Amino acid sequence: MAGKRSYDDGCLVAQALERVGERWALLVARELLFGPRRFGELQADLRGVSPNVLSQRLADLTTAGVLAHRQLPGAPNLWTYELTPWGRELEPALAALGAWAALAPSTDDKVSAAAAIFALRAASHPVEGSRFDLKVDLSGRVFHVRLGRQRLKVEAWGDGGADATVVATPEVFHRLVFQDRDLDAAIKAGAVTWKGDRKAFQRLLAFVPAAAKAPPAWMADAD
Q1: Separation between Cα atoms, residue 223 and residue 221, nearest integer Å
Q2: Closest of 220, 221, 202, 217 to residue 111, by C-alpha
Q3: 3 pLDDT exceeds 80?
Q4: CA 12 to centroid of chain Cα atoms
Q5: Strand order from edge to edge, sheet including 164-168
Q6: Does residue 66 belong to any structural domain of this protein?
Q7: Which of 94, 129, 145 is the last residue of a domain?
Q8: Can you give the pTM of this predicted structure?
Q9: Coil, strand or helix at 207
Q10: pLDDT value of residue 137
Q11: According to DSSP H, which parts of the chain are helical?
């Protein structure tokens, strides 16, 4: 892109980094995997990014063809950012980076709603299991998690019903799935609100590989 430094390297890895290698760029892509977002929504979920840096990353990614900037129908002052079809092809690369980082994870468990749901989608694997539909509300951002034909589908919530609804913060949901896996304890501690089929959660966990357990912070706080 004009005005940006180049690696001056014909390697495809270098070419990819010239487009998405700047700080925050890949996290912007992660946040947009589940649908369009407005500038303020992105800034709220990307903790620590300044408005100026976010504006620059969005502009760079749009120029590179990774993002599209669209006006909301009937709302001349409201604009959203969304991944282009080419931008959506970053998802396997993001999943691979996450799997690599899992070999030496940090202890920081602050995650956005999109990050928690992306981790679930990236970690799931086909196994035999019963069908289910879950409505997952993570601090107001709602997702649809459902099983069909041995494949876990995770996407932004649309129309329709669900076997169960879970309401939690992104951090609590992430720990619930990847650490302690004890739904009843989470409900008792007041960290999770659950309505509907409790067994649906166990069927969900069948699609997530076993992870090392750690004492969840919300249980310690509840004591």
Answers
A1: 5
A2: 217
A3: no
A4: 26
A5: 151-156, 141-148, 132-138, 164-168, 193-196
A6: yes
A7: 94
A8: 0.81
A9: coil
A10: 95
A11: 12-20, 25-31, 39-45, 51-63, 85-88, 91-101, 113-123, 170-175, 183-188, 199-205, 217-222
